[in-house]
Amino acid sequence: VKIFAPNIEQRDVVNHLKGSPTEEKRNVLVESARLARGNIQDLAELKAGEFDAVIFPGGFGVAKNLCSWAVDGKNCTVNEQVNSTLQAFHSAKKPIGLCCISPVLAAKVFPGCEVTVGQDKNVDGRFPDAETASAIAELGCKHICKNVNESHVDKANKIVTTCAFMCKAPLHEIFDGIGTMVQEVLKLA
User: What's this model's pTM, rounded to 2 decimal places?
Assistant: First the structure.
């Protein structure tokens, strides 16, 4: 297992205590290295031939830094290195795992694919971003409704997705869903 991130500037830096942007500037690779405790490489160095699968964690950083979904929604652009990484694994028929908001990357890069970001309605207030499912459908992809502890496997494209934090759920339920996504990716590898 190796961890990669693009060597680019973050769109913005958020003070998560206050929930507001700061004037500070940070680099995605450097910030990712903080989270990975330094065990990370530049995404430009990733070679699909050296790996059996790729998994993209989610988080709002995906919608801000790996693509422009946070600002442009379905009209977003995907970072060139992220796009080429996804294309390389897909072309090699290797599994791709995506969780939280990152399934929108597949929706932009692989028209016609099947993904989940949870539900297409804000069921019991647990899915406040349910409109993302409609945007995925507008991109020509099929959104599959799943609960937070489940994942969806698009067998034709070898894409496995789960909603994770797109659902307001207890952490153990989110953990379970991510676990099923990882297990399904490994089954396809």
Answer: 0.94
- The whole-angstrom separation of Cα 51 and Cα 41 is 14
**Residue 103 pLDDT:** 98
Task: Determine the pLDDT at residue 146.
Answer: 98
Active-site positions read 100
Residue 61's SS3 state is helix
Spatial separation of the C-alpha atoms in residues 122 and 130, rounded to whole Å = 6
Any idea what DSSP says for residue 15?
Answer: E
Mean per-residue pLDDT for 9-27? 86
Domains of the chain: 46-188 (3.40.50.880)
Q: What's 167's DSSP letter?
A: S
| CA–CA distance, 67 with 64 (Å, rounded to integer) | 6
